Amino acid sequence: VAADAYYKQALGLEGQDRRADSIALYQMALRLVPNEDFYYLRLGGALIELAKGRPKGEPDQSFRAEPRAVLAMPTQRLTSLGQQQMMQAAEAILQEARRLAPINPDHYANLARLNRVWSDLGEPGRLPQSLEYYEQVLKVSPFNTSLFAEYGTVYLAQGNNPKAIEVLSRGIVIEPEYHYTLHRELRADAYLASGNVDEAVKDYRAAIFYNPKALASGNVDGRIDGIARIGRIDAVTDEFHSIITRFERAQTWSAHNMLGFIYARQNRPAEALPHFKAATEILTEVEQQTKQKEPTHWLIRRNLAIVYSQLGQREQARQEVTAALALAPAKDKGALQTLMNQLGGS
């Protein structure tokens, strides 16, 4: 009972982005009940998320990447590890989860994700291991369409666009209506990288048509610049304008944000301004109604500040940076303060 209470408290702290505190509680739960595979699953996931923001750091010479050693480590030491050793700790914990429940596909999926994240953190040699785990989990969960999207991103990261297109197409066939969104976006990225312009634009437009938040995740800069480079950006902006007219106001903030972003990337600040303003206004209303914060809100405020600055409206720009500072994660406040200093604020 105590272990379950610790586990539930840890889940709540993760939801508040207090991962270091949640890790302490997962450790406490596992010290009491060391054979619960899903406790290990959550601890491994929390370590991965914490590792993303950690510096490389000096290695802890006494660290051992073994499940028992990780559970026994004082939490302060564990959460102070450098990025590489923290990922090693996460791997040891997730491997233990798999050992305890070898037929649970979630454990293979999480090991696939761990290796994918590790590659993003500067270890590209981890991609083949990620692919291997995705292949294993899809053998036992062949209709899990979300896994096909994740699997496809690994091939995209490898630059294997034909294989990415094949995998993502399999996901679309399984559940075509749902996957007019993420799978279509990713497949469009693969088509774009392959030079198949018509198929790329077709998939981008389909994704936007069905999803008001389409194209707003992942490599947004590269995606928009790529579409602009092939001269088809108008097709995309038309779809975002369509979102604004077809969906309820509360669902249109992301489309406004994307239009602002596109116009800003094209050095058209006067056209970007009303869309960034609309995005922040609508998003503020949504947050007040739902009592939930959108993690990217501060970025929209920052971009609005930059556009105001480009238009010579420095006081409004400073106000938006102030708003962004109140919303941004601690790791991003330094860059915002630099922007404020450039605008003559304090």
Give the termini distance in whole angstroms.
Answer: 51 Å
User: What number is the mean pLDDT?
Assistant: 93
Shape: globular
Question: Which range does the strand content fall in?
Answer: under 5%
Give the helix level as a range of percent.
Answer: over 70%
Evaluate the radius of gyration: 22 Å
CATH fourth-tier homologous superfamily of the domain at 248-346: Tetratricopeptide repeat domain
Biggest sheet layout: none
Describe this structure in words.
This protein is mainly alpha-helical. The chain has 19 helices and no strands. It has a domain at 248-346: Tetratricopeptide repeat domain (Serine Threonine Protein Phosphatase 5, Tetratricopeptide repeat, Alpha Horseshoe), CATH 1.25.40. Helix content is 74%, strand content 0%. The longest helix is centred in the C-terminal third of the chain and has 22 residues, at 269-290. The model has no long low-confidence stretch (mean pLDDT 93).
Q: Layout of helices and strands, plus pairs?
A:
Layout: H1 2-15, H2 19-32, H3 37-52, H4 67-72, H5 75-78, H6 83-100, H7 105-120, H8 127-140, H9 145-158, H10 161-174, H11 182-194, H12 197-210, H13 220-229, H14 233-246, H15 253-265, H16 269-290, H17 297-310, H18 314-327, H19 330-342
Can I get a quick summary?
This protein is an all-alpha fold. It contains 19 helices and no strands. The protein has a domain at 248-346: Alpha Horseshoe (Serine Threonine Protein Phosphatase 5, Tetratricopeptide repeat).
List keywords for this structure.
Serine Threonine Protein Phosphatase 5, Tetratricopeptide repeat, 74% helix, mainly alpha, 346 residues
